[in-house]
Amino acid sequence: MGKVFYISKNVALGLLLMAICAVITIIALSVAYDKERAKNRDDSGHGQTDNTSTPTIPTTPSTEKEPWDRYRLPDSLLPLSYNVTLWPRLEPNEDGLYIFTGHSYVVFKCVKATDLVIIHCNKLNLTSFDGHLAVLTAEHHSAPAIERSWLVPKTHYLVLQLRNALTEGSTYVLHTVFQGELADDLEGFYRSEYTENGVTKIAATSQMQATYARKAFPCFDEPAMKAVFNVTIIHSHGTIALSNGREIDTVNTISGLETKFEPTARMSTYLLAFIVCDFTYIQSTQRGVLIRIWARRKAIDDGQGDFALNVTGPILEFYERYYNAAYPLAKSDQIALPDFNAGAMENWGLVTYRETALLYDPIISSTRNKERIVYVIAHELAHMWFGNLVTVRWWNDLWLNEGFASYVEYLGADYVQPTWNVKDQILLYDIHGVFGVDALASSHPLSCAEEEVSTPAQISEMFSTISYSKGAAVLRMLSEFLSEPVFAKGLSSYLNTFAFGNTVYTDLWDHLQQAVDQTPGLDIPHTVHEIMNRWTLQMGFPVVTIDTRTGSITQKHFLLDPDSVVERPSQFKYIWFVPIKWMKSGIDQQQFWLLQKTDTNDNMRVSGNDWVLANTNVSGYFRVNYDPENWDRLLALLNSNHQALSVMNRAQIIDDAFNLARAKIINTTLALKTTKYLSKEMGYIPWDSALRNLNYYILMFDRTEVYGALKSYLKKQIQPLYEHFKVLTENWTKVPAAHGDQYNQINAISMGCKMGVEGCRELTKNWFKQWMGNPAHNPIHPNLKSTVYCYAIAFGGHEEWDFAWTMYKNATVASEASRLREAMACTQTPWLLNRYLEYSLNPSKIRKQDATATILYIARNIVGMPLAWDFVRARWRYIFEQYGRGSFSFAGLINGITRRFSTEFELEELKKFKADNEDIGFGSATLAMEQAIEKTTANIKWVSENKAQVLQWLTDESA
Ligand SMILES: *[C@@H]1O[C@H](CO)[C@@H](O)[C@H](O)[C@H]1NC(C)=O
Ligand SMILES: *[C@@H]1O[C@H](CO)[C@@H](O)[C@H](O)[C@H]1NC(C)=O
Ligand SMILES: *[C@@H]1O[C@H](CO)[C@@H](O)[C@H](O)[C@H]1NC(C)=O
Ligand SMILES: *[C@@H]1O[C@H](CO)[C@@H](O)[C@H](O)[C@H]1NC(C)=O
Ligand SMILES: [Zn+2]
Fold this sequence. Notes:
Homodimer. By secondary structure, the chain is α+β, with helices and mostly antiparallel strands. 42% of the residues lie in helices and 18% in strands. It binds 2-acetamido-2-deoxy-beta-D-glucopyranose (4 copies) and zinc ion.
């Protein structure tokens, strides 16, 4: 599944910052990534089911669990193929219920004699045949009779107890007829409602990963239970039906149209997809593969699918070459669904996307929107081989699947947009982000044992930042020390060996090892397996300290909070095999392997003006610290000739320094010193890294006397960047040509306006005024809209606000509406903010789904924060009852409001709020409340320890 990258720049920034706070747990970042997965976690799996076809048979309590009480299927039966027919109704029935009906035949083989048939089935009403919920036949002989059959809602099973055992080696056919609800729950076969031209429309679509295929039809719903699926969909005239295979036949029947699809390749159930809607498409073919982009007719007519179509062919071609394996299917459909909640899903041959992850509108979409489309497509298409063709046996290895796609998506994206330098961005989007979470004592290893993951809720938890981003980072490191050609060779051999089958992660290590063994001259100190175990079986990562005075090198488990206690033991004692790429005075040196806690490398002993920089381009997953002299030499280098280092290394020096300071390994002033050279820095990646780190300082100090000095210092630092873009864009009339510049222009304007750089206020106000003068023509470039709207509203009064409100109400494009909704929270006028808070709980003004996000935006604003806090406290019961239950964004609300909390008084208020509402409760925000208290405590401590020296340093620097 794809990760949700850009909720919004600022929210993401906030989240990354929160991760820097020592006490935040995994949850913070899982918001940024698989947002919707995390949200669904609350109600995924084993809740109440409405299987009432037959009463469940109470089992006598015993210590030995019955096979149907276990979450994993027994290993006695293996599916070979299915015939599945589904008929979704896009109109409600007489009871007002949207349903689908269907029937299925599954041919399976008995590989171990058993008198039980256990197959997944969830929330389906099954038709009875002679009192039984299914019909069992055998292909060439007779099948045992069914003694009794029942459903087990807790483990999602249909169970048949047979009179006699099935014969080992024989095949049987199980037939079921069923009816399910086409609910709007985004799980299994579900209904998506959206409006087009004011008309509400319904589409039937699906999301099977991880455990929802069983909600569409009875099936052996585990990734290793691969089979061939012959799908038929019944649908009405005027609609189209799609599934994984190519449609081979559509015939008229009394029920409507019946579309049959070619048999699928041998595949896992979680990759199935079924769609009925009235969309249209554009197409092309690439080496015999049919490529289609599907979306609402209007979107296709407006050309919004063109960009996706343009990049899909080349991306597929890139992977064919990279994997050295042809695209495994005859067609590649990609479809944009309105109100689709996961970012995207890699269903084999029919990838589903949120509209914003696939559709590009040259007039409305920003460069960031465009970039996201390329990343998400590249991510999902990478799975067509890695994940779909070869699939991990069980969900405990999900990190390999998602980490891999999250790494190679940068390669695929780079191939189609070679001028964007997208490969560098893995630092911002994955590595720095996950460093924050993985540096907590509460982190967890990438890999876990198969037995630890069995319930749907446990499976859901695998979709975490650690799996996606740390997975990507360690695979990138592996590829770096093996070299890309060796990595690709091993990969290709792995994919070709296990095509249409399943693996465990060590199979990949074995094939990479073979590639290593076949490469003369490639020398690694241990096997791939041994090296990687250190990174996948123990959590966290090391900080490597290089003392250039002696050449000594040491490693230590890096923890953001030096007082935290690691309770999880590691068989490797938190020692890693660390591949250190490094340079001396600008010249790349031979890679050094740190294999124990301490070692020495005489080569790293330097003096005079020579400097050492380790972990070049952050090719390894670790942080670096140096002796004070070398830090000074690196700082001097940044100040005199920062371009001697790559943008990634400049960003890394800043990010490492700030985090080492948080962990009390170096002084806070040393971290601040890494920002001194920024007045000369024009690169996006270093700036973004710096702003992300400095934002914590802004939050902690923007209500204190430190802020005056901080503001003048940052104004001094950002001013040259602002001027640079003013010139580059010919007084803001052009769009910078380079991709990174387009992003950094946004940083320049938003920080420029925030820090009071001359001209910024007028710039944003005038642009907005022009638009207000002619609402039909918006002169603001899509890249800059969010920023310009925000500052124009912040600097403006109620005219600007009311204009934004009108444009918000009239917006026809979702992304434009959400930019405006966010920007209206930027006003500094208390009564406007209070009125907006009131609007947020009025569903006729702000859609219910957007309520908590809107309050959060208001809380981000320094003036809005106390207002939002009062508002939420005063209406807790109402908000909780109307909006809170089970909603993940609710935890985000508590997190967001309390982000600035850093005084004893705020801590008291927070505790009182908790005590006062004990009776109402906090639902899904219970953990967030605890975290908020811990975080506030940590903030108070940090401020008390750092305030004086930060103020002193800033005062000296801004003088
Ligand atoms: C599905 O189609 C394949 C290929 O035509 C066939 O071999 C298989 O038996 C079919 N499955 C079922 C359940 O009929
Ligand atoms: C599956 O469908 C095909 C084509 O409709 C049919 O020939 C075959 O008999 C079906 N398989 C079973 C097991 O019913
Ligand atoms: C399944 O059966 C129950 C009990 O009869 C009923 O309440 C429910 O609506 C049915 N579901 C569907 C989708 O028909
Ligand atoms: C798609 O490619 C065509 C042909 O190269 C080009 O003219 C068009 O501008 C591209 N469209 C988009 C949206 O990139
Ligand atoms: Zn994925």
